Every structure is written in C-alpha cells, then in structure tokens.
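Hi R.,

Here's the chain you asked about this morning:
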Amino acid sequence: MKYKLPSNWKYAKIKEIADIDTETISEDTDPNYRFKYITLGDVNKGKISDELSECSFEEAPSRARRVIKKDDIIIGTVRPNLQAFAYIEKNIKDVIVSTGFAVISPRECVNGKYLYQFLYSEYIKWQLYTLIVGSSYPAINSDDVANLKILLPPHEEQQKIADIFSLYDFAIKKIEQLIIMKEEYKKAIIQQMFDKRKIVKGINLEISNILSVVKREDDGKKIWELCT
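And here is the predicted structure, written out as tokens:
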C-alpha cells in the first residue's frame, strides 16, 4: 500500500492485537456433552446458518474442537477467498467450531468489530491471495492468520468505522429479508394465478379474464398473453 497513512495510524499483525485459538475442548470431555457444531459450510460472509447440527462429543467429528465466545471472530482457513468469516455478536453456550476455522479473540487495544470488518478489505484479500496462489489445495493455517497485517487507527476512530460498516450490514440484512418476503409473496400470487381460479382482494377471476390465447404469426403456435 503506497499511499501515506495519517500519523496516528499504524500497521499491526493480528497476533500483536489478538489471541488465536485460545481454547479447545479436551479429549477427556464427557462423551455425552452435547453442543451445536459450526462447519465451514455453515458460514458465509458474516452469516452463520440458523440450522446448525447438534451432536454429542462422542459422536462428533474429530475436527469439532474449537471453543468460541462473545466477541470472537472466526475465519475459515480452507479456501479463505470465499470469506467464511463471522463475528460472534452474542453470548453463546455449547457451540463448537471446526478446526477449519481460526478463532481470533481481540484484545482491549483493538475494537473487535473493526478488526472483523477489516477482514473484508482489499488489503486482506491481497495477503490471502499471496498465501494460496499456486497451491493445489488453497488453505492457510492459524499462523498465517496471526501474521496477517491490518491498518490500525486510534481506538476512537476504530469504533466510528466499525459503527458505519455495522449499519451497512444491518441495512443489507433488512433488504435481503424484504427480498425473501417479496419472492414468497410473488410465488403465492403466481400459484393463485395459474390455478383454475385466482382470488384477488376477495374477487374470483377466471384465468381467461387475465390471459388470452393468441396465435403467433411466425409459426402459428398458440401462446398465452395478458389480456389488454
């Protein structure tokens, strides 16, 4: 990065401002201990699936080992370009993530949400690309994550930047929810339209009142078109 930084900004490696993979469940854990398990497939650009599998320690895969807590950041180390990253927003209990994630626990010197948002920057993308380019199996490890460099402004500015991007994330989430609702509504309307009868605002309409059969001039085939 060649542009000049503000005098109160600096570069820092993640290992200088956060701890990595601080806690795992041990081999002598109660076999009947049950937990929800987060795999790489459950995380996509900040979103964790609402339908996590639940299992006991005895039946869990050997990769189900990393313990997470509120304000941790998880970063998928397999195909990291897919950005299987997430910020643990709430207090959680009995949730374990795969060793396919590195778990970042920010220290007091850094705003966790700022650090999380910075993971999506072009600077991080470039660093990840240099780590996996030419590899037949695009993956990094926790040491690679620890050595990623970020830009670190003063703590107050970190908070402001994190707040701005968190607001954008909130707006995007609401828009996506609205799109889903609109799609479901559209499906319901289409289903009614192509039933024998359609009900709109309590009025029964025959499908023939909506569509009419016409012949195409080029091949004479009959098609439906909207009545005018």
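One quick note: The radius of gyration is 25 Å.

Cheers,
M.
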